[in-house]
Design brief:
With about 375 residues, the chain is of the alpha/beta class. The chain has 17 helices and 10 strands. It has one domain: Alpha-Beta Barrel (TIM Barrel). The longest helix is centred in the middle third of the chain and has 19 residues. It is globular, with a radius of gyration of 20 Å. Bound molecules: zinc ion. Zinc ion binds next to strand 3.
Length: about 375
């Protein structure tokens, strides 16, 4: 990905890593050329009330916090500096990213660490105009290291409370099972989560996709549904459309995380559009993990135009070069998205959330009041 800054003379834009093809212009679906400069675009995107629905809290661990927590716990990191660690984020694919990701979480050990991690993300999301977040957490990454489930939960919940008090942002938790581990491990994790179930809205499936189809987790998802958890699943990122079918038909997923490979199966796309099953798409992640060579080649706009409920998200923002606002801006510039499409993405994110209907209606009204 070619990384360049952009801006207009005397008003430098941020150092956002945006592959610029040409200035933002009108689009087919945009009736008038409202936004011509990136800072106007950034301001408009920030003001749109948005939900983030695909965010791994462990993936918001910034190198600065990694070093601070390592110092606190007396952990020696295999990198001499924050910059050296950041430079190591040169992934070739999902697996090479995951190797670093799992190494990073080693520094998260007590309640305060999980509190700080959660609050730091919510502060950053709030700055981008996120009004509601549904965040994934990976208990197995922590319990396997001897961190008690209760330590993790109390830290996450206190971070969420602080986010609500400080920024007015609402936040739900979605427990993700690591699909590279077996279904028995997932079932043990589900049992450990039951005492906390009133604090966890759903269950998901993440980690290495290829070779680990959703059907491997049919039983644990069936149990989770009986316990009242809403099922979602990563599918169709590196894996084939068949994995999306399995997530829908076997796991009964209410949302598909990523799902961009649905485009290879027109009947599946029609079904996703007809049944209004949202996809939580993460464009900067997709480029960083080589799902698409560059952002300009991303299929988000085509999927949106095909009538799918597409939402935009940041996935693992500390590792993939941008939080939600940066994903909106970079994608808008690379795909020439206009005001109408950006509004639609924000609206879809509220619609696709698990917020109560009354809250959704309130955010829809607020969205309609936002003018360029
Ligand atoms: Zn993800």
């Amino acid at each position: 990905m070619g990384l360049v800054g952009t801006g207009i003379p005397g008003r430098p834009f941020s150092a956002l890593p945006v592959p610029i093809r040409r200035p933002l212009q009108t689009t087919h679906s945009l009736k008038k050329p409202i936004m011509t400069a990136p800072d106007e675009l950034a301001d408009f995107v920030r003001r749109l009330p948005k939900a983030e629905l695909h965010l791994h809290i462990e993936g918001s661990l910034e190198p600065e916090m990694t070093f601070a927590k390592a110092a606190k716990h007396g952990i020696r990191l295999p990198y001499p500096s924050v910059d050296a660690l950041r430079a190591a984020y040169d992934f070739r694919n999902l697996q090479s990213f995951l190797d670093l990701y799992y190494a990073g979480v080693e520094v998260l050990r007590d309640e305060e660490d999980f509190h700080d991690l959660t609050l730091a993300y919510l502060a950053r999301a709030h700055a981008d105009g996120v009004v509601h977040a549904e965040i994934f957490f990976d208990p197995q990454s922590h319990t396997a290291r001897g961190i008690p489930f209760a330590t993790l939960m109390t830290g996450l919940l206190s971070g969420i409370r602080a986010g609500r008090e400080n920024f007015g942002i609402s936040c739900f938790l979605i427990l993700c099972f690591l699909r590279h581990l077996d279904a028995d491990d997932a079932m043990r994790t589900l049992r450990a989560a039951l005492p906390w179930k009133q604090h966890i809205i759903g269950v998901g499936l993440d980690s290495s996709e290829l070779g680990h189809p959703p059907s491997n987790f049919a039983d644990v998802f069936a149990c989770a549904r009986l316990e009242g958890f809403i099922p979602v699943a990563h599918a169709g990122e590196e894996g084939p459309p068949a994995y999306i079918h399995e997530a829908l038909d076997i796991l009964k997923a209410a949302r598909i995380d990523h799902g961009v490979r649905a485009e290879e199966d027109p009947a599946l796309c029609e079904r996703l559009a007809r049944e209004r099953i949202p996809l939580t798409v993460c464009p900067l992640s997709n480029v960083k993990l080589a799902v698409f060579k560059q952002l300009a080649e991303h299929n988000l706009r085509r999927l949106l135009q095909a009538g799918l409920c597409i939402t935009l998200n940041s996935d693992d923002p500390a590792y993939f070069g941008g939080y939600l606002g940066e994903n909106y801006l970079a994608t808008a510039l690379a795909l020439d998205l206009g005001e109408a499409e950006l509004r639609l993405l924000a609206r879809n994110s509220i619609e696709a959330s698990f917020l109560p209907a009354g809250d959704k209606a309130r955010w829809f009204q607020q969205l309609d009041r936002i003018h360029t």
